[in-house]
Amino acid sequence: MIEGLNEYVQKSSTVWIREDGKDIKVKDWIIPVWEEQREDWDAVILGVPLSRSSISASAASEFPKAFRKAWELFTTYYFDEHVDFRDYKVGDLGDVKMHYTNILQCHDNIEHAMQHIQHNYPNSFYVSIGGDHSITAPLVRSIQSNNENKSIGIVQLDTHLDLRDLSQGPTNGTPIRQLVEGNVVKGENVYNIGLHGFYNAPSLIEAAHKHKVNMISLKQLRKKGIASVIHDVMEQLSNKVDIVYLTVDMDVLDITYAPGVPASTPGGMRTDELFDILFEMGKYPIVRAMDFVCIDPNRDNQVQSTVKATTYAFLTALASRYIHKMKK
Amino acid sequence: MIEGLNEYVQKSSTVWIREDGKDIKVKDWIIPVWEEQREDWDAVILGVPLSRSSISASAASEFPKAFRKAWELFTTYYFDEHVDFRDYKVGDLGDVKMHYTNILQCHDNIEHAMQHIQHNYPNSFYVSIGGDHSITAPLVRSIQSNNENKSIGIVQLDTHLDLRDLSQGPTNGTPIRQLVEGNVVKGENVYNIGLHGFYNAPSLIEAAHKHKVNMISLKQLRKKGIASVIHDVMEQLSNKVDIVYLTVDMDVLDITYAPGVPASTPGGMRTDELFDILFEMGKYPIVRAMDFVCIDPNRDNQVQSTVKATTYAFLTALASRYIHKMKK
Amino acid sequence: MIEGLNEYVQKSSTVWIREDGKDIKVKDWIIPVWEEQREDWDAVILGVPLSRSSISASAASEFPKAFRKAWELFTTYYFDEHVDFRDYKVGDLGDVKMHYTNILQCHDNIEHAMQHIQHNYPNSFYVSIGGDHSITAPLVRSIQSNNENKSIGIVQLDTHLDLRDLSQGPTNGTPIRQLVEGNVVKGENVYNIGLHGFYNAPSLIEAAHKHKVNMISLKQLRKKGIASVIHDVMEQLSNKVDIVYLTVDMDVLDITYAPGVPASTPGGMRTDELFDILFEMGKYPIVRAMDFVCIDPNRDNQVQSTVKATTYAFLTALASRYIHKMKK
Amino acid sequence: MIEGLNEYVQKSSTVWIREDGKDIKVKDWIIPVWEEQREDWDAVILGVPLSRSSISASAASEFPKAFRKAWELFTTYYFDEHVDFRDYKVGDLGDVKMHYTNILQCHDNIEHAMQHIQHNYPNSFYVSIGGDHSITAPLVRSIQSNNENKSIGIVQLDTHLDLRDLSQGPTNGTPIRQLVEGNVVKGENVYNIGLHGFYNAPSLIEAAHKHKVNMISLKQLRKKGIASVIHDVMEQLSNKVDIVYLTVDMDVLDITYAPGVPASTPGGMRTDELFDILFEMGKYPIVRAMDFVCIDPNRDNQVQSTVKATTYAFLTALASRYIHKMKK
Amino acid sequence: MIEGLNEYVQKSSTVWIREDGKDIKVKDWIIPVWEEQREDWDAVILGVPLSRSSISASAASEFPKAFRKAWELFTTYYFDEHVDFRDYKVGDLGDVKMHYTNILQCHDNIEHAMQHIQHNYPNSFYVSIGGDHSITAPLVRSIQSNNENKSIGIVQLDTHLDLRDLSQGPTNGTPIRQLVEGNVVKGENVYNIGLHGFYNAPSLIEAAHKHKVNMISLKQLRKKGIASVIHDVMEQLSNKVDIVYLTVDMDVLDITYAPGVPASTPGGMRTDELFDILFEMGKYPIVRAMDFVCIDPNRDNQVQSTVKATTYAFLTALASRYIHKMKK
Amino acid sequence: MIEGLNEYVQKSSTVWIREDGKDIKVKDWIIPVWEEQREDWDAVILGVPLSRSSISASAASEFPKAFRKAWELFTTYYFDEHVDFRDYKVGDLGDVKMHYTNILQCHDNIEHAMQHIQHNYPNSFYVSIGGDHSITAPLVRSIQSNNENKSIGIVQLDTHLDLRDLSQGPTNGTPIRQLVEGNVVKGENVYNIGLHGFYNAPSLIEAAHKHKVNMISLKQLRKKGIASVIHDVMEQLSNKVDIVYLTVDMDVLDITYAPGVPASTPGGMRTDELFDILFEMGKYPIVRAMDFVCIDPNRDNQVQSTVKATTYAFLTALASRYIHKMKK
Questions:
Q1: pLDDT for res E328
Q2: Among C41, E117, E243, F13, which is least packed by CB within 10 angstroms?
Q3: Residue A4 belongs to some domain of the structure
């Protein structure tokens, strides 16, 4: 800054400032990969701003921007576990480039981007920020093709099965169908947790049964307990697959807690339950990638509670991974 | 449609379309009684768009319209119990005609309409969709007069006793007082569940004691458990009455879960608790009629969570009845 | 309805009811073409629910539904001109079928649908209800291909030139570029009215100059007067083309008057000015088709002022056509 | 207050405090009539919190409260005319008592209240604050019955004619019909200003013609000029009647300026036009009473622009009366 | 009121009316101390409308007004415990006078006001209604200086530690730091309950450890149970201090339950948990003062759920004190 | 970016990207002064995020951030005048550092910052972005002290006089009083344009008269015409002073056009009028500095129309200066 002016003026707020010193905010902790060259990122984050593939109109494409803006509200100290996880290194990869009208090309770009990312950061944890749920298919395909001789399982937190047929192309209603019928993931290696209510048509239930997708309702989850269910699911998966992909469709949450998700419903999960699930999942290094999808920040309430809840969930997942990595 | 055009154009969305095929939405499942003649409807639904009888200003009269519109968001498959209840036959009776300024005539219309409905569909389950809580008095009166030698009990889910005196005529604050003092229902056969907080004045408590209305607070419900409380209440009622009427004032819900109910308050019930109660109630065929009242869709939040929660509650009640009917 | 019940109950409100008698609402005046067979509709209305082609996220695809719902608020009597235009016959064609992910097929469907419509109703006035502005290109193409030896001009009410290049495919930013470069319409036969402010990049201005698109700013319109400008534009067009297509991008309106249009801006047109323009345009039978695009009802304010303003504009255009047809 | 405490603590804000000193707010200027006994109030204000008589659901009954609350935002100095009108004495009469369910009794109470008010304050200007438009009929009836040998005319600012038939009782759609058919006011002595658009059904236009109600459209008003139109109307009325009643249905305003009026529409009046009309009307002492109706504060936007605009209009009317009284 | 008018007209609603008779609302139960002279108020309430000391922009200064307005929605009967607590005498002291720009003087005024209040009402329970959390420091200082030889402990319900350093002066982030470093309260006598998530920077955790502030996370509270935790905390405090001050930063609540608190977050407490805590706290007469801070009514949702929840919490605390006082 | 990845991934959106090429957005045109060293900025922009000095609670301190974010919506081509003003060089100085609780120090920081800025950029046009109106006093003081032998005049667009006394310190109601009584600017050299309605108390009018402040009402402005009034004002000022400071309190706008300004009112200016005034002002190089104050983005409507209107006004002012500079 200009001589003498520094005392009274500071850089404007749209500029990315990394504060040094004792306390840092999440915005200072997550570093763009083009600013700090390193290959050993513990986790890398990829924005996937695509939602014109959503069945109903959605501005989930605006979420990566809203998500990054929310970083300024959070610190790197996780009170519940009394741990500062700033030493967990997280790089921001930027956003996948999207075409305005060619949706298939968008999906290709996602797949190629994840391919390059895996090559560049072979040991990182991959976090993708949607966008709508259609992005999960190319992301998982990319991970499969990069791990040719390995098998992949999916833990899906969702109110819906996402097993629609492909007659209308790949949408936010089809990713699991695409992966199962495309032989990328076996149906029996998919665990859908959080199903409830009146939102899955009989034909989708049939498809789930046909493909042997595992369905765990929210009621079952509550009855048996989160820690127990996650333990069982991950035990089973560990015996069957080499890699687990965790996909979080935020419509798994109750509409009261997640008004900003177009498909959220009454009767859904509470945020504290979601946070507990993500903490439990952090115990398993076999989980190699994760996404959060279907948050439309334009639809969120004025205080942006859905955007903030997603950020909280994201941090819980990373903090847990850090804690369990440190324990070893 | 016009020759050649059908391939590219479909009927506009305001028109009632019944889709055939495997998956149906609730909007396709509930059939206007003037479109399909049958006497054996399992349930019939009556819109009761009256709210100028509400003490405070309310647009609950707009709820039947909002409720029907929400039907397109729900399927007939109830995941929690793994059952498709489409074979439960539900007819839509339309709306009671209302007068703009003569509120007593509105109440008479409601009573007469229910009289005709009972004659036409003597074995159906009667579901009335308010409107405000004043509609419950004529509805119960009508059922009593149609069942001269039988006694009626009421299960009331409500934050309020609705035992106000009649000095201001029949409002949403008076239905239970009207029924008890009108000797339609004995106070001891009324079970009010969900009371809490600072919303019932001492004079109403006195009236409840005088008439021996049974009061079960939300705290008691939570302490004892929903299944247990409902079991006890229904056991007692089964020994005392021939018919049970279930009235759901949606202000029983916490304001966070039901912002669209003008009188909803902090400290109220969660939606999952309401759904559980309605599922339990579905076990008892003695329950012959049900209403949902006091939802103002104009006051609801942008994502219409209260409208959706009421629809969810309604479907839970019907699905449960279907399940327990099938079990026999 | 059921015997005896009719006195107290009426059909529910989601059902399409055509009231007979002296006063009719617009909802009763516009008749689905599958309900009343006739070839001599004065005007036919086509819903075009496509907005995944929009550059920024938009739910303009929801507008045809919101538009039809608003019909219940308007009568067929136009007070300003003291005329009841119910004898102007208007048919509702329904909505163009859309594919969820193949945007080009959506555009093809629009083009084919309009082709069939012109064949079936060769003398009608064609009104298309968007959707986003990308729909104008296939609509105009279809009209051109149906009128091989005739030339078409465009009157465009818009804050933007919509002359973006096609590198991202056909979006709501490209329709005029597509039509001009596709030799469907000559640039000199395009009159863009309402331009202002800081919303058109220099490259688009260059493109406009290159193609000789006529640009009339909002300031010029106000200075010269609406009647005078429209008269001049239509005089010029009448000398150059056989058919005029009128496209109304509602973002021409000031953001205060049209909060429901994602791209509306400060400094735009007032609604009374828009209504005056549409009244003037009604004098010219050479105008054979019209569209309204880019209204996102989910983004509109709580009182839906943008949806209502569009309906008002639409009715003004039709009433004016009726008046001027009657004058002959 | 308590000794020593006064220095640090002031009375809480819900308590009515009249500040003395140079500058006063409108809340300090308008004085409850039970606090200051005087018979020579220049104007008296009566709250009329009735809206269950509204055809569509409305909380206009909440407006008197919202209106009084807005008084704290305004001073008694009218900048446009450089005048402090605090010497114009205005008394607050409180609110008419309403019955919850007997709407006819509510109308009777209004009529009786105005009767007593005229007896007590025979020379004041009567300002009634609705409530919906149904209140105008009993108010004008009361004035007629108190002025037996005099004739009354009405200036009505409204988008609607309010000439509906009485088959549904007295609603906000019927007051002019009631007064004209009840021989309280001759149709030819009613001047409706501000009509426009598509909101009056042909049968109402017929009724207006039959009763010779004068209709001045918004377009005519703008073309001829406000001062000129008001001058002509008042000249005509002065030759025909002894007393003029001014009724302002705030739905005369454009929906952009008055989102809080359930029936406001696009194409309506701007607030500055309304203020000019009210200023002009202040020149005529023959205007003996005025009302403002149909403002629903619950429906207003977050910044309460409709409530504030009504208060501004009210003050303009009173300031103008003061100015023109002082000029004599 | 005027002769004859009383039958039809009642005092307007902005005027403070104390209704007599059987049922009273909280607004009638809490009495301004300048209206009823007594020294034995069980509790006195002080408005503290200061929020320009808030780090982020806040209109918490508007809360005392919104809080008093909400009193009309509550009765004095607490259903959960079946008790009418109207005999608990509560006086409204009005609001502390604030300076527009001198924040330190505002804090001085708060301290002096509380000093005078303690002198005048030495045996009352002191309830302060913020305002932001900066008000707690002068309030506790004032209580300490009035109880020279006694020691004070604090129970703090909060998502944050409020232990920021004073480099930016006394803000809503510093009160506990001020009190601990100012030797007003020992760190070990502060019990912060409800901490969770990612909202306390490491430097604040360090400060807490250094000063031995007791930190009880929301997870610990839930695991151990509210009654048990409060019992333990109060047992410990009873052995260490003479007076306990209870400060409730409403940001301890989940953002879903308290959208009107600028710093509320996901992962926070539910309202029913807060109410339970306050009920438990009512058992301990050693608690001599309480405050509620950081509620911004302008930021609250349309149905004002945060304002209502705070009022519910406040009443629960007072009702509990009454019940436990009566038990003795 | 990483090898191979660039094809599919772009930098994330929170990062400041300056696009090169033909079309630039305002965000690319305005350059942080710490990124491009130059002394000949045509204009420099200073964020002044202070609003705890506002009389009523305001988040105007958040406006600089919202303002910069809006830059991405505007290009550098001004259609109304057919000019691309990208060659007008504009530097972003960042934001003045503020203290959380010492408001006087905040005002000192503003004054010192502007002092340094004038020294560094002696020939630039100074644009300050508030914050509330209290910032104008230190800004003008700083300009005066830097131009010791020159006299300053003020053109103030405002609904209020801002001549309150200093008993409550320097607030958004006092800047003109401070400057006039501090002998920084003579009252006769202040021209307040846009006054109207009931918002200035008599004592302020008296102060204006005493200090000979020039008051031009909105009605006078409209009657005489904007170009004519601005011409007259600037002619007079040119004869009396050396430097003119233009201060735009956005509350001069009608509440319909500027809902995001806490003090905006009905009866105010339209945005097109404001834009015309700013265009006229651009003709006078004697205007050396400008500010925009009192916009609270948290209070703005969902589509941020007030934030966008301020940006439009700002660009109009700069474009006009560029045009008139080029003409010479």
A1: 77
A2: F13
A3: no
CB of B21 less than 8 A from some CB of E: no
Q: Are A70 and A53 in contact (CB under 8 A)?
A: no
Rounded CA-CA distance F64/A11 in Å is 12
Q: In whole angstroms, what is the distance from residue B207 CA to residue F111 CA?
A: 69
In the DSSP assignment, the letter for residue E42 is S
Residue C75 lies in a domain: yes
| Nearest to C46, CA basis, from C64, C31, C62, C72 | C64
Looking at residue F3, what is its pLDDT? 62
Residues of C in contact with A62 (CB under 8 A): 57
Q: Where residue C51 sits, what CATH number does that domain have?
A: 3.40.800.10
Mutate to test the interface with D, among F161, F198, F257, F269 (most CBs of D within 10 A): F198
For residue C289, give Cα distances in angstroms to B101, C87, C241, C293: 46, 19, 14, 13
Tokens of residue D105, six digits: 């009794």
Convert chain F into a string of H (helix), E (strand) and C (coil).
Answer: CCCCCCCCEECCCCCCCCCCCCCCEHHHHCEECCCCCCCCCCEEEEEECCCCCCCCCCCHHHHHHHHHHHHHHCECEEHHHCEECCCCCEEEEEEECCCCCEHHHHHHHHHHHHHHHHHHCCCCEEEEEECCHHHHHHHHHHHHHHCCCCCEEEEEECCCCCCCCHHHCCCCCCHHHHHHHCCCCCHHHEEEEEECCCCCCHHHHHHHHHHCCEEEEHHHHHHHCHHHHHHHHHHHHHHHCCEEEEEEEHHHEECCCCCCCCCCECCCECHHHHHHHHHHHCCCCCEEEEEEECCCCCCCCCCCHHHHHHHHHHHHHHHHHHHHHHHC
Q: How many CB atoms lie within 10 A of CB D150?
A: 12
Rounded CA-CA distance E324/E316 in Å is 12
Tell me the chain F residues in contact with residue E51 when contact means C-beta distances shorter than 8 Å.
57
Considering only A140-154, B10-24, B252-266, D185-199, which range has the smallest mean pLDDT? B10-24
Distance CA F27, CA F242 (A): 33
What letter represents residue D95's amino acid? D
Question: Which DSSP state fits E127?
Answer: E
Mutate to test the interface with F, among C216, C255, C273, C299 (most CBs of F within 10 A): C255
Residue of chain E whose alpha carbon sits nearest to that of A26: E198
**Mean pLDDT in each 10-residue stretch from start to end of chain A (328 residues)?**
70 48 87 90 97 97 96 96 97 95 97 96 97 98 96 98 96 98 98 98 96 98 98 98 98 98 97 98 98 97 97 98 92
Which residues in A72-88 are b (16+ Cβ under 10 Å) and which e?
Answer: ebbbbbbbbeebbbbeb
**Chain F residues touching residue C55 (CB < 8 angstroms):** none
Given a cut of 70, whether residue B12 has pLDDT beyond it is: no
User: Three-state DSSP class for C292?
Assistant: strand
Enumerate the β-bridge partners of residue B247: B156, B291
CA distance E271 to F196: 47
Q: How far apart are CA C255 and CA B40, in angstroms?
A: 55
- Judged against a pLDDT cut of 90, whether residue F19 lies above it is answered with no
Domain total in chain C: 1
CB E134 within 8 A of CB E107: yes
Tell me which residue range forms the domain holding A33.
9-13+22-326
Residue at D3 is within a domain: no
| Residue found under tokens 């509670």 | A305
Is F2 contained in some domain? no
Nearest neighbour of D100 by CB, restricted to B101, B168, B296:
B168
User: Interface pTM (ipTM) of the complex?
Assistant: 0.95
Residue B20 in this model has a pLDDT that exceeds 70: no
| DSSP codes, C84-101 | E-TTS-EEEEEEE---SS
Establish whether E107 is an annotated binding residue: no
Q: Which of D152, D116, D328, D146 has the alpha carbon at shortest distance from D245?
A: D152
